[in-house]
Amino acid sequence: MRGALVLVALLGVSGCTPYQPFDSAAGLRQEYASHLGAGPAAGVTVPFELSPEITADLSAKLPPVPSQRRKINQILDYIFSRLDLHYELQPTRDAVEVFRDRKGNCLSFVNLFVGVARQQGLAPFYVEVVDYQRWNRREGMVVSQGHIVAGLYLDGELATYDFLPYRPKAYREFKPIDDRTAAAHYFNNLGAEALLGGDPVKAERLLGIAAGIAPTFEKALNNLGVLASRKGDYDRAQELYDQALANSPENTLVLTNLARLYQITGRQAEANEILGRVEAANTTNPFFFVYEAEVALSRGDEQKALDYLTRALRQDSEVPEVHVGFVKVYVALGDLEKARHHLERALKLDATNPEAQELAQMLGKESK
């Protein structure tokens, strides 16, 4: 009886204690330190962490509401209406940068949403869209970036929240991921942007952080393999691709780069076998067909490139990269009228697309 009374007393005391949410930013910092070491981890950004300015703004503008759904709607209204957030493909931003610039891409939006929703007492998490992977081809190699949305469980079912303005939300496969993997996606995005922007030193540093905090993260390993291959260090590239495939043996992005490596090093039969597997596995990915069109165009086969882009268009006509691909092919064919038609469509879908902007400048000069 005495023990029961003590337990009741303890419960009574704990019931009067104000709710203290788990500090997920501090938790992620501890994970950084355990994987990178305390010194290197000290300067590594937590993508969803809020600044005092943001928390003060939330306190002033988000009054308490009685239900979880109303709280979510309040947060979305805050991000899209009060902040007037606008889509911008690059660069990927953390939560503080999104708040400051009022711009961001999909992962940027999720960083802010997760930080704000957790501060408001919800339990959001990052979710990878498995069936929507972005391919970017440079110098024969494919740089990989995933697509991330925010997730919450409402009445036992997964609800997702996205910021991709041009795409109908018809995703099929979702994979909730932990904060450490989400941070690896963030640094991989930054590294991929640096790689595509021609800054290999910055790219290697950022991709090294991604692979350091999540050693089995195949996208960062793939992109580090691309960097090694560009340097001519084919043994190191093979090692990185093998590491990535050990964790994700059917990853077609990595397999494509491995096939390219085999082509460079004279192992054509092995390359052909891998490419056959890749094409069979990517019948629904528009980015794969855009990639194949780029390869065909680089070989001077414009008709094959058009065939691939037509297949991409059938898969998803709302992806700006598909229309950018058509622009390149029609420019090569000298059909500037069709090139401008697809350029207009690409810019309507995403006015911030860097390739579309470059092509617009080029075609503008052509018309003068």
Overview features:
368 residues; alpha+beta; Serine Threonine Protein Phosphatase 5, Tetratricopeptide repeat; four-stranded antiparallel beta sheet; 18 helices
What can you tell me about this protein's structure?
Strands 5-4-3-6 form a four-stranded antiparallel sheet, sandwiched between helices. A two-stranded parallel sheet has the order 1-2. It has 18 helices and six strands. The protein folds into three domains: 22-198, C8orf32 fold (Roll), CATH 3.10.620; 216-279, Tetratricopeptide repeat domain (Serine Threonine Protein Phosphatase 5, Tetratricopeptide repeat, Alpha Horseshoe); 283-362, Tetratricopeptide repeat domain (Serine Threonine Protein Phosphatase 5, Tetratricopeptide repeat, Alpha Horseshoe). The radius of gyration is 23 Å and the shape is globular. Helix content is 63%, strand content 11%. The protein has 368 residues and is α+β, with helices and mostly antiparallel strands.
